[in-house]
Amino acid sequence: MSLFWCIIIYGDIMENKLRKIVNILKDSGKTISTMESCTGGAIVNAITNVPGASSILDFSAVTYSNDFKIKMGVDKDIIDKYTVYSKETAREMAKAISDFTLSNYGIGITGKLGKRDPKNKCGNDNQVFMCIYDKDISTYIDFDIFVDRDNRRDDKKEVLEEVVNKLLSYLEK
């Protein structure tokens, strides 16, 4: 099979998963929001590419700086204790955005995509921490991956795949 057809099929699979997520949320009357850092809004962008996404998403935030994470509700003490690149910060981001938007689910993403951060020297390069927060039952789904593709776009795509797969699996149970 040619690379062209592999890309088309892959795109259709991801699109179908995102459509399922939006439909599950719509059918259950639930909402979602994201607070993303290293992905620069890739998750919310993918969700909003699905027709009807406006019924399940009102607001999301891209918070590159620690200051804006804190302004959006992330506890400064968590960042100071665990670093901005940690499971704990991803959890805080997911919960803070869910609380801010009053959404049922919040997604928090923080990490490094192949670039050293002079303001935050701690943490592993190419490690991304993600969390899905379910406000209705106060549950956190934590996961992380190491990405090391040739470019940031491919790293973001890998993170997107991971989040979509985890979220869909969680919603379908």
Describe the protein's architecture and organization.
The protein has a single domain (3-168), classed as Maf protein, CATH 3.90.950. β4 and β5 form a beta hairpin. The longest helix is centred in the first third of the chain and has 26 residues, at 3-28. It has six helices and five strands, in the order αβαβαααβββα. Residues 1-10 have low confidence and may be disordered. The N and C termini lie far apart (34 Å). Strands 2-1-3-4-5 form a five-stranded mixed β-sheet. It is globular, with a radius of gyration of 16 Å. It is α/β, with parallel strands linked by helices. The protein has helices spanning 3-28, 42-48, 66-71, 76-82, 87-101, 152-172; strands spanning 32-36, 61-62, 105-111, 127-134, 139-146.
Secondary-structure map:
Layout: H1 3-28, E1 32-36, H2 42-48, E2 61-62, H3 66-71, H4 76-82, H5 87-101, E3 105-111, E4 127-134, E5 139-146, H6 152-172
Parallel strand pairs: 1-2, 1-3
Antiparallel strand pairs: 3-4, 4-5
Helix pairs in contact: 1-6
CATH superfamily placement: CinA-like
Structural class: alpha/beta
The figure for the number of domains is: 1
Shape by Cα distribution: globular
Work out the radius of gyration: 16 Å
Number of helices: 6
Query: Biggest sheet, in brief?
Result: 5 strands, mixed
Short description:
The chain has helices spanning 3-28, 42-48, 66-71, 76-82, 87-101, 152-172; strands spanning 32-36, 61-62, 105-111, 127-134, 139-146.
